[in-house]
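// run 5 | inverse folding | seed 20
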């Protein structure tokens, strides 16, 4: 891990008949404070202080806290998340009831999704963060941390995989999305809605997410690079042509984020055909909900045309999640011809 801080573990005092929850802190706004130069905020608040700011935690669980990173969430890497999954596995195998990750909200959904792809234990894993810093009026971090620990300690969430808890709502890792730059209510699950909530100090889960079998990825396996190409009205084929010509080295795959159900202007189709001949290309949708289409629109650049050209529909996965999935698939040796099957297994709900 690219840790920018010494890793320490501390145990909050608490009733030792309560479940143990392992808390891993990565930074983000939940741990941010104003800089002394007055230039905004940055993550400096240590996990011991986050725990100390929520006295109610000791009534819920024995919290063992580890400062893993102290970074804004755009600095968290998939490699960090893979390492975190291994630490969490060790923690629950040693008896923890569940795990909580605190991090910045900007990439919270990617951490949650990648952990969910890899998570093969019954114990719940909960990712949380905050939109306001601890010193801000109406700081949301303490309530989010309490909610996350409550869910992680609960029997209710066992077997539900990785969840995100924010604003007293429980979201599935596959669907949660940060949909506002600054509002405390930034998190939504488009298409599905939250699957549960916190009420009167307990976790309530109305729905249990359907999850594919976990992927086994060794901790030190490098993740091949996959680029996302977003398409809009009147998009030029220039970027795709550059990829075809090899102008961008080291690209092992591409996610094409099409408009609507997965469509592009016809002018992009020749370059896409050439690109598919070089690397796997996954077709996602920029709409943010639903499934990528594959049998609906038959015009050039439509979903029928693109899938016939060899693009692999991303199913329910948005571009960011499709990118992580393709990186993991390529890392575990999924062959070119198996990518479609792999997405059918990991990304569809039927
Ligand atoms: N609310 C937040 O945590 C945003 C912050 N920029 C981060 O993701 O680290």
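// decoded
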């Amino acid at each position: 891990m690219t840790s920018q801080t010494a890793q320490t573990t501390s145990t909050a005092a608490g009733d030792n008949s309560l479940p143990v929850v392992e808390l891993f802190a990565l930074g983000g706004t939940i741990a941010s404070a104003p800089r002394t130069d007055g230039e905004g905020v940055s993550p400096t608040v240590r996990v011991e202080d986050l725990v100390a700011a929520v006295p109610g935690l000791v009534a819920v669980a024995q919290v063992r806290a580890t400062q893993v990173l102290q970074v804004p969430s755009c600095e968290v890497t998939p490699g960090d998340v893979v390492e975190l999954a291994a630490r969490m596995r060790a923690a629950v195998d040693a008896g923890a009831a569940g795990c909580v990750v605190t991090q910045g909200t900007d990439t919270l959904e990617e951490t949650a999704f990648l952990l969910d792809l890899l998570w093969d234990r019954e114990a719940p894993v909960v990712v949380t963060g905050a939109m306001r810093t601890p010193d801000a009026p109406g700081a949301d971090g303490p309530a989010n941390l309490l909610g996350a620990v409550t869910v992680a300690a609960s029997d209710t969430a066992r077997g539900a995989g990785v969840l995100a808890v924010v604003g007293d709502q429980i979201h599935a890792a596959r669907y949660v999305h940060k949909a506002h730059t600054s509002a405390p209510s930034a998190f939504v699950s488009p298409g599905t809605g939250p699957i549960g909530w916190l009420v009167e100090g307990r976790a309530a889960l109305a729905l249990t997410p359907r999850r594919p079998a976990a992927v086994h990825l060794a901790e030190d396996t490098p993740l091949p690079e996959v680029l996302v190409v977003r398409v809009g009205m009147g998009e030029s084929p220039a970027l795709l042509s550059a990829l075809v010509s090899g102008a961008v080295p080291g690209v092992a795959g591409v996610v094409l984020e099409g408009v609507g159900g997965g469509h592009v202007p016809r002018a992009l189709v020749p370059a896409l055909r050439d690109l598919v001949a070089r690397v796997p290309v996954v077709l996602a949708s920029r709409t943010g909900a639903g499934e990528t289409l594959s049998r609906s629109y038959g015009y050039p650049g439509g979903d029928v045309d693109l899938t016939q050209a060899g693009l692999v529909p991303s199913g329910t996965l948005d571009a960011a999640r499709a990118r992580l999935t393709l990186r993991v698939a390529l890392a575990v040796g999924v062959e070119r011809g198996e990518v479609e099957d792999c997405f059918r297994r990991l990304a569809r709900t039927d």
